[in-house]
Design brief:
This protein is 22% helix and 34% strand. It is α+β, with helices and mostly antiparallel strands. It folds into three domains: 119 residues, Roll (PH-domain like), CATH 2.30.29; 125 residues, Rossmann fold, CATH 3.40.50.10330; 228 residues, Sandwich (Tumour Suppressor Smad4), CATH 2.60.200.40. Strands 12, 13, 14, 15, 16, 17, 18, 21, 22, 23, 24 and 25 form a twelve-stranded antiparallel β-sheet that branches. A hairpin with a 6-residue loop joins strand 3 and strand 4. The radius of gyration is 26 Å and the shape is elongated.
């Protein structure tokens, strides 16, 4: 076998790979740790598996060891060089659909079970060196999306985690808020991470539950994984799209197995002594109305959003109100300057004291002396985003970063219906923000003062945080069925804590 000039160490053995004679080499070098094999008969075809990027786990079985991999579809073809991308292509991220495949290596040349076990142990040691999670607590929401999360767990998630040798503790959520309760008292020392099999709702509940804990400073360091099994799946889409990976259950799960982590900003929303934490978005106006009022069409799946958006555009609502914000550098030209701004809501809370003094109180930021600016309504929509994708098909904030310490604000005021409809059709790639009817800017802090409908002064709006209503005005959808966390009308203040949480992500 030709010498690999990148190799700095490794092992060699004669084997039969899926029944065909081959020479296998485990090499470690600049390109990472790779399992290579070259078939002995016919054309010289070399295959390569990157242990870090392609392998789930390894199992010894008598005189064989089985490498359980997750590779691109073309890995099964007899191409030279690699099962996956090799050479220069290895450094490029291309959206190729991956699938599970097992490679069986049978020891040859008189070597037996001991040699197979030694190879399996050596390969597992390499995988362990990558810092992958070994024990995961998995929360499954059986009610999200099309109510398929439990079946998805049994058919796809559990087998893949077992193939990776991960110890699993699974719990299904039973009701809204259950995941928050679980996260608030879970013995985190028993696990390396928490996995949410759901849309975005369980992730949001887990973050809020962790920040309610007395040990929140340590607890918030626990990595959280997201497997898309809901309707929106905005966080999973954002993480996978950033790495040029497809937004699929298997790709999201493999990112968790590999154990790479990403810091994530957390936004604190405060009104008086009430507080809630957001990791996705805060919406008011058109977007919130579509998200919440379309619940009655949940049977349509994600198509419910497109359908109800058309309904709302045809019957357009505009809301009185105002917004105040501290712009990020480079965004100072937006809005009108504000001469005076009241003392920070967060500051007043700190002065007055809180009953939950041991839980997370919000970022230690005071914008009292900052240059605040304002925009007055009427508004069609106001959205504050933390990540690029609001759903798998909606890029709400194309410039949003996971941990830049800023929120991305989208403001739509006067807009003719035809232009608004054209604008919404461009949300799939984020190009809608270039419309002259859209104001898009980054902010450090944000205050929302919502008002009632222009067309009906007795009717208010909905404020939606990460898919859950926190405040409803008079005569709104669901008003009589729910007790909301906050009141509609008084100002809400939003402040971001840079990189507070941690999520699993593709490298």
């Amino acid at each position: 076998m030709e010498e690999d000039h990148h190799a700095t160490g490794g092992a060699e053995a004669m084997v039969r790979v899926d029944g065909a004679p081959a020479e296998a080499t485990l090499s470690t070098g600049d390109g990472g740790t790779e399992l290579r094999w070259r078939y002995c008969a016919g054309a010289a075809v070399e295959r390569i598996l990157s242990l870090e990027a392609d392998v789930l786990g390894v199992e010894a079985n008598g005189t064989e060891f089985v490498v359980r991999a997750f590779v691109a579809d073309d890995a099964a073809t007899s191409k030279p060089k690699s099962c996956c991308a090799a050479g220069k292509a290895r450094g490029k991220r291309r959206r190729r659909r991956r699938r599970r495949r097992d490679f069986v290596f049978e020891m040859a040349g008189g070597e037996g079970a001991a040699a197979a076990a030694a190879w399996a142990e050596m390969l597992r040691g390499c995988l362990d060196s990558f810092g992958r999670p070994r024990r995961l607590f998995v929360l499954v929401n059986p009610f999200g999306g099309k109510r398929c999360a439990s079946k998805i767990y049994e058919a796809e998630i559990n087998p893949m985690l077992e193939a990776a040798g991960v110890e699993i503790t699974m719990q299904e959520t039973q009701y809204r808020g259950h995941a928050r309760e679980v996260a608030s008292c879970l013995d985190l020392a028993r696990y390396d991470g928490i996995v949410c099999v759901s849309g975005d709702g369980v992730l949001v509940e887990v973050v809020n539950g962790i920040l309610q804990r007395t040990d929140w400073e340590d607890a918030i360091k626990m990595p959280i994984g997201i497997v898309p099994a809901g309707t929106g799946n905005g966080m999973a889409k954002s993480l996978l799209h950033a790495a040029s990976e497809t937004c699929s259950i298997s790709d999201a799960l493999f990112a968790i197995i590999r154990g790479h982590k990403q810091a994530l900003d957390v936004c604190t929303i405060v009104q008086g002594e009430r507080r809630v934490f957001s990791v996705l978005s805060v919406t008011w106006g058109l977007v919130a109305d579509v998200d919440i009022e379309s619940e009655k069409y949940r049977w349509m799946g994600s198509a419910r959003f497109d359908f109800y958006a058309l309904v709302r555009v045809m019957n357009l609502r505009r809301y009185h109100g105002s917004i105040h914000f501290v712009p990020a550098p480079g965004n100072e030209a937006y809005g009108e300057p504000v001469k005076e701004i009241g003392s920070s809501i967060v500051e007043r809370l700190a002065q007055n004291g809180e009953s939950q003094v041991c839980s997370y109180q919000g970022p230690p930021a005071d914008f009292q002396g900052s240059d605040w600016r304002s925009i007055d309504g009427p508004f069609v929509a106001v959205c504050i985003n933390n990540v690029p994708w609001a759903a798998e098909t909606v890029m709400a904030a194309p410039e949003a970063k996971f941990s830049d310490g800023y929120m991305d604000a989208v403001v739509i005021r006067d807009c003719p219906k035809a232009d608004l409809l054209a604008l919404l059709l461009k949300m799939s790639d984020g190009s809608y923000v270039k419309s002259p009817y859209v104001t898009y800017l980054k902010v450090k802090s944000f205050r929302l003062s919502p008002g009632n409908l222009v067309e009906n002064p007795r009717r208010g709006g909905i404020i939606d945080v990460d898919g859950e209503v926190i405040a409803r005005g008079e005569a709104t959808y669901g008003r009589n069925q729910h007790q909301d966390l906050m009141a509609y009308g008084p100002s809400l203040q939003l402040t971001v804590h840079q990189g507070l949480a941690t999520v699993y992500c593709p490298k």
